Amino acid sequence: MRIGIIATELPPAVGGMQEHAFHTASELARGNAVTVFTRTNPGIGDTPFPVRGVLGRDLAAAISHLRAFPADVWLGLSAAHAMLVHWVAAPVVLYCHGNDLLRGAMVPRGGEAGAGTPPELGESFGLVRHFVCNSRATAGILAERYGVGAARCTVVPPGVDARFFVERPDRKPGGAFELLTVGRLTAAARRKNVDGVLRALTRLPPDFPIRYRIVGDGDDRPRLERLVAELGLSEKVDFAGALPNDALPEAYARADLMVLASTVAEDDIEGFGMVYLEANAAGTPVLAAASGGALDAVRPGRTGLLLPSPDPEAIAEAILSVARGDIVFEAQACRDFAAAHRWPAVSARLERVVARAAGAP
Fold first, then answer.
1. Alpha carbon 27 to its chain's center
2. Half-sphere exposure in the Cβ direction for 323 (13 Å, CA)
C-alpha cells in the first residue's frame, strides 16, 4: 500500500506523541510505501521512510502537496487531522489519543492560513473511513461526544520499544525503597499529579527509607522544587531532568515502583500512559489512578495498582503496601504484559485496519 501519514509531532522533539509517530511510521514502512508529511523544517535525521516538511503557514501550498501524493490511504495521527477528508480523495483513517477529541483543535479546510471556517470535528468525522483509538476510554469519548460507534472504531494501543526490556539490577538488602515518576513537568501537565506524590511522602512514617526520583523537565519544575523544600523532602527527592533515550530504561529498572497517579480534567485525561508499559518492560510494577487509558495500560494485582482516587492518602497507602510486601508483583509478569504490546505486534493490528480502509486484501 501507498500510505500517506500526517504526523505534526516527530523527533527530535521529545514526548510520547513523537515516539508514537516515529514508530508507527517505521513499522508500517516495513511492508508498505510510507511517506510522512509533517511541519516545515522538522529537523529530523535519517528515517526509514521519506519525510516531507510541507505543513506550514501556507495552507494552500500544503493542500496542493497532499492532493498530488498518490496515496491508497491516509493515516492522520491526531483527531485534529480530520481536515484531510476535505483535501484528499483517498480514504482517511484517524488515530485518536483522547485529549485531541476533548479539545477539538482543527485546521481550516482551505485557503491561506487563517482563512476559511474551521469545521466542527463531527462534520469532518462523518467522512472519515475508520477510527483507531489508543484505549477504550478514548473510544468512549469518540462515541459519547461524536456518535462514532464500534463499527467504525478499533482500539489499538501504542507500542513499547524493545529498548525498555532490560534486566533489573540486584537489590541491596535494607536499601531505600526507590520510587520513580517519568513525565513532563509543565504547568499544562499538572494533572500528572507530582504534587500528590510529594504530599503522599509526608504521610509516610518519618523513618521510612524512601528515595523519589522525578525524571522530566518543564516550566513547572521550579515550583515543584520549591514545594519539595517547603515539605522538608529535599533529602528524599531527586530531580533527574530529562534523560536521554538510552538512560531511561535503566531508570525504570532501578525503581521499585513507578507512580503516575494522574488526575482528570474536563479537557485533559491520560489517554493511555505509555510510561506504565515502559516500566513493566523493565520488570517494574506501576501505580496509577483508575481513570482514562490507565484502565487498559495496567492490570491490577499483576502489573500494578489502580487507585480509585489519586489523593495523597491513597498514594501513600499504596506505596506502603508495596514497600512492606503486603502486595508482591513478579517482574516476569510485568514483562509478559509489556511484551504483548511490542511495536511489531501492535503495528500489525494497525496495518490490518489501514488495509481494510484502503480496500486492500
1. 17
2. 23
Q: Distance between CA atoms of 74 and 239, rounded to whole angstroms?
A: 41
Give the tens place of pLDDT for each residue, 207-220: 999 999 999 999 99
**By the 8 A CB rule, do 288 and 298 touch?**
yes
Looking at every residue in the chain, the average pLDDT score rounds to 90
The band of 136, judged by pLDDT with boundaries at 50, 70 and 90, is very high
The CATH class, in words, for 2-159+342-358 is alpha beta
Residue 165, C-beta contacts closer than 8 angstroms, at least 6 positions apart: 249, 281, 282, 335, 338, 339
Q: Are 282 and 163 in contact (CB under 8 A)?
A: no
Query: What are the pLDDT digits (tens) for 148-165?
Result: 999 999 999 999 999 999
**Are 2-159+342-358 and 162-339 the same fold in CATH?**
yes
C-alpha count within 13 angstroms, C-beta hemisphere, residue 234 = 5
- Which sequence spans correspond to the domains of the chain? 2-159+342-358, 162-339
According to CATH, the topology of domain 162-339 is Rossmann fold (3.40.50)
Rounded to two decimals, what is the model's pTM? Answer: 0.90
Interstrand relation of 177-182 and 130-133 (parallel, antiparallel or unpaired)? unpaired
